[in-house]
Specification:
By secondary structure, this protein is α/β, with parallel strands linked by helices. The protein has 23 helices and 30 strands. It folds into six domains: 102 residues, PriA, 3(prime) DNA-binding domain (GIY-YIG endonuclease); 79 residues, no CATH class; 200 residues, P-loop containing nucleotide triphosphate hydrolases (Rossmann fold); 186 residues, Rossmann fold (3-Layer(aba) Sandwich); 56 residues, no CATH class; 88 residues, Ribosomal protein S10 (Alpha-Beta Plaits), CATH 3.30.70. A seven-stranded parallel beta sheet has the order 11-12-10-13-14-9-15, sandwiched between helices. It binds adenosine-5'-diphosphate and zinc ion (2 copies).
């Protein structure tokens, strides 16, 4: 920034991918630089925008003036800014939207009004809940406020943020204050509390655990990289319970001792109070925890703590990656293979990949840890790009749990029909119920409800060209591949065993619940799936109930496979192991292998040894066989070969253009136009398919199409897409978004 610069080039938090120029008014001269957040008139409105750069000239003749610059130092430091620019071009997302996702949006507000008011509960939770009953009918808004506060884990709520989140005005909160259920706290008091906490600062943790030889060897290598301050991407491949977290902790410790900061990324779902506790115990109050369950105001406060150097380690989900640290020393990505690292809204970035890039831009090491590294990741090891570190055994010679395989085909032959609970599984559940121990039953329902499966041999129809499960479409009585568009007529006889018993649906968690109730009417059952967990905190509530022993059996989709650490669970059963294999997804085998490995690693964490039962029709499928034998290397070898043949990632990349429209014809037309124009403009070697109706073609009264590109040149293809979409004003009432390296393609 030059003090004499008079023009600011600004991007906005909108879908328009271009810069707008503004005059810097006299009173703001010298105060506006790259990375600043400003307010500027835009059409009829006043919008927040980010300054990309300042200069002394503009190609536009008459410019409007900036209105204001957000007063506190709230700019994006250079490495983060570079990161944003890279993300913008790689993920084909306007820079303004990328920058927006790097901040808690609420910051802009608190930055403006210096005297924010904070609210906290003034009574204990039981009293509040009791009081809520009397509110039930009469004061809906007040009830909403209390419910919101009770759901959250934090103590203080910024008034405006609270009202915005609940969707009420201050009135409801004021009433509750009058009734002494809530109390008002000033920012000054809050700061005082913070500084009291600060007294505990960072105390060098006492390392009561002596690292074993493997851990020490791994740590030495990481420390060498830390000391030479260079970019080294490490892949820490260690079986579940091999002491990876302990290695992260020691590495972070080293970083903090040198006065630098660290980022510890954890999948949202694993970010339980126990994980939080583990890091707080070791690092005291320099830990900042950052995740989506925090209120907007709390996120803003955590962000400020990091920026002001009060927090030196952030433990958090995806967005913690953008922590405003000035001297970052290390990034750790735990469970790096997790799908939840992929953001499913714009910018659709993958946090693991961006972590590696941030490390590269900052010239520091990054550790990607997992028991089952993603194929993309291990492929980078084979290519010599990443350095592999291994922890081959569980600490203290603890054993992996016993895994029992139930061949459903055999069950079907003996029982004459496919039952949800096999005889061995039923026996084991009954045994646990008698002993008062807990059981988890696990089923992936998603995508498992609309495929063609033979009831006799378990054969599931796949596309010959894509190895992707075909989806049954009732309306046209056809099976369809959502990758290449191929269709076949509804089969009458099984292509493998000739049986006529083909069913065009799978089973869901509700059916499992019914089957369980039929055999064990007295069992207390909790079901957790996307129907029972509609609001974002409900799965934590369900898990808490289960942990407290309020139920004997927990039935759930994949969301329960992770972050489970229930000492009283001694039996984990997968109802049908291949349910994840049937997703119309080229990563299906990989996901199944990871999930089964994960599930197997979860049982028996407490005192009592655990058992795992895996029911399957496909007892010879490599994903299942390798998971049973804990054989990662063999699985990867076979899977990479298959991916190479089909030209799938990590050998090629996909880009998915998602087209959404209320009007079916308009959407279809837009999709066709885009695909046709791309076919002409993409570089040689890039394939264009579509428009294909997405598997869930109609969601919330909108139709979805995909135009799928397969390429080895993302940046070039993005340019072509940008050109094709620049004419998109012609596509009225159609929404278009681009997903680079997509995960969910149905
Ligand atoms: P992972 O992250 O690989 O699943 P953890 O680091 O969580 O493994 O370790 C599993 C358990 O073993 C934890 O309870 C941890 O405290 C303990 N542990 C880790 N390293 C050691 C060690 N060297 N000696 C004894 N216990 C250890
Ligand atoms: Zn196909
Ligand atoms: Zn069959």
């Amino acid at each position: 920034m030059k003090l004499s610069d008079t023009i600011a080039h600004v991007v906005f938090e909108i879908a328009l991918d271009r810069e707008f120029d503004y005059k810097i008014p006299v009173h703001l001269l010298g105060k506006v630089g790259a990375g600043c957040i400003v307010q500027a008139p835009f059409g009829e409105r006043v919008l927040h925008g980010f300054v990309v750069k300042t200069s002394n000239s503009s190609s536009f003749p008459s410019l409007k003036e900036l209105q204001d610059v957000v007063p506190e130092k709230l700019f994006i430091e250079t490495p983060l800014f570079k990161l944003a620019q890279w993300m913008s071009s790689y993920y084909a997302c306007p820079l303004g939207l990328v920058l927006k996702s790097m901040y808690p949006s609420y910051l802009r507000k608190t930055m403006r009004n210096a005297h924010a008011e904070y609210i906290s509960l003034n009574k204990n939770k039981e009293d509040v809940i009791r009081y809520m009953d009397t509110l039930r009918k009469r004061a809906k808004r007040q009830l909403d406020v209390l419910e919101y506060i009770l759901q959250k884990r934090e103590v203080f709520f910024e008034m405006d943020a609270l009202c915005a989140a609940v969707g009420c005005d201050n009135n409801a909160v004021e009433r509750l204050i009058k009734k002494e259920l809530l109390a008002r706290i000033t920012e000054d008091e809050l700061v005082k509390r913070d500084s009291r906490l600060d007294r505990y600062k960072y105390v060098t943790p006492i390392n009561s655990i002596t690292l074993n030889l493997d851990q020490q060897r791994v740590l030495n290598q990481i420390e060498a990289a830390l000391d030479s301050r260079e970019f080294v991407p490490f892949v820490l491949h260690g079986v579940t319970g091999s002491g990876k977290t302990e290695v992260y902790i020691r590495s972070i410790q080293r970083v903090l001792e040198r006065g630098q900061q660290a980022i510890m990324l954890i999948p949202e779902i694993s970010l339980t109070p126990q994980t939080e506790e583990r890091f707080r115990k070791r690092f005291g109050n320099v830990v900042s925890v950052f995740h989506s369950r925090l209120s907007d105001g709390a996120r803003a406060r955590e962000w400020k703590k990091m920026r002001d150097g009060k927090a030196k380690l952030v433990v958090g989900a995806r967005s913690a990656l953008f922590a405003p640290f000035s001297d970052l020393g290390l990034i750790v990505v735990d469970e790096e293979h997790e799908r939840s690292y992929k953001q499913e809204e714009s910018p659709r970035y993958h946090a693991r990949d961006i972590a590696v890039l941030r490390a590269k831009l900052s010239n520091i090491p990054v550790i990607l840890g997992s028991a089952t590294p993603a194929l993309e990741t291990i492929y980078n090891v084979y290519q010599g790009k990443y350095t592999l570190l291994k922890l081959p055994a569980r600490v203290d010679d603890r054993q992996l749990p016993e895994v029992i395989l139930v061949d459903l085909a055999k069950e079907v032959r003996e029982e004459k029909k496919w039952v949800v609970l096999s005889v061995p599984l039923k026996q084991k559940i009954s045994d646990r119920l008698d002993k008062g121990e807990q059981v988890i039953l696990f089923l992936n329902r998603r995508g498992f409800s609309s495929m063609a499966v033979c009831q006799q041999c378990g054969y599931i129809y796949e596309c010959d060209d894509c190895s992707i499960t075909l989806t049954y479409h009732k309306s046209v009585e056809r099976l369809m591949c959502h990758f290449c568009g191929k269709m076949i007529t509804k089969p009458v006889f099984c292509g493998k065993c000739g049986s006529s018993e083909i069913k065009f649906s799978g089973i869901g968690t509700q059916k499992v619940e019914r089957a369980l109730k039929a055999v064990f009417p007295e069992a207390r059952v909790l079901r957790m799936d996307s129907d029972t967990t509609t609001h974002k905190d409900s799965h934590f509530e369900l898990l808490t109930q289960f942990r407290r022993g309020k139920a004997d059996v927990l039935i759930g989709t994949q969301m329960i496979a992770k972050g489970l650490d229930f000492p009283r669970v001694t039996l984990v059963g997968t109802i049908i192991a291949e349910s994840t294999l049937c997703l119309p997804d080229f990563r299906a085998a990989e996901t199944t292998f990871q999930l089964l490995t994960q599930v197997a690693g979860r049982s028996g964490r407490g005192e009592i040894p655990g058992e795992v039962v895996i029911q399957t029709f496909m007892k010879d499928h490599p994903a299942i066989v390798c998971a049973l034998q804990h054989d990662y290397d063999r699985f990867v070898e076979g899977e990479l070969k298959a991916r190479k043949e089909l030209l799938y990632p990590p050998f090629y990349r996909f880009i998915n253009i998602i087209i959404t429209a209320k009007d079916k014809k308009k959407g279809q037309w837009a999709g066709t136009q885009i695909a046709q124009s791309l076919i002409k403009t993409v570089s040689k070697g890039t394939e264009v398919k579509g428009p294909l109706p997405s598997m869930v073609h109609r969601k919330r009264a909108h139709f979805y199409w995909h135009v799928l590109l397969k390429t080895n040149d993302v940046f070039g293809t993005n340019e072509a897409i940008k050109q094709a979409l620049s004419k998109s004003t012609r596509f009225t009432q159609v929404r278009i978004s681009v997903d680079v390296d997509p995960y969910y393609m149905w």
